[in-house]
Write a structure and sequence with these properties.
Elements: H1 5-32, H2 38-72
Length: 76
C-alpha cells in the first residue's frame, strides 16, 4: 500500500520552507560579513511565500471540490 499523497506533499512543503528560512538565515549572516547576499534573502523569501501560498490555495480548492461533490450527491 502506498503512502497518501498529502503526506508526501507535506514533507516536500516543509522541506522547502526550512530551506527558504535557511537561505534567509545564511543571507543575514552574510550581510554582517560585508558580502552581497541580497539575492539569497530575496530567493528565500520568495520560496517560502510561493510554497505557503500554493499549499494554502490548492488545499482550499481541493476542499471546495470535495465539498461541492458531497452537496451534489448526498447518497454517496
Amino acid at each position: 500500500m502506498s503512502k497518501p499523497s498529502w503526506r508526501i506533499r507535506r514533507r516536500i512543503i516543509w522541506s522547502s520552507i526550512v530551506g527558504g528560512f535557511s537561505m534567509i538565515g545564511l543571507g543575514a549572516i552574510g550581510l554582517f560579513q560585508d558580502k552581497i547576499t541580497g539575492e539569497l534573502i530575496t530567493g528565500g523569501v520568495a520560496l517560502v511565500t510561493l510554497v505557503a501560498s500554493a499549499y494554502i490555495g490548492f488545499g482550499t480548492v481541493d476542499d471546495k471540490w470535495h465539498h461541492t461533490n458531497e452537496m451534489e450527491n448526498p447518497d454517496g
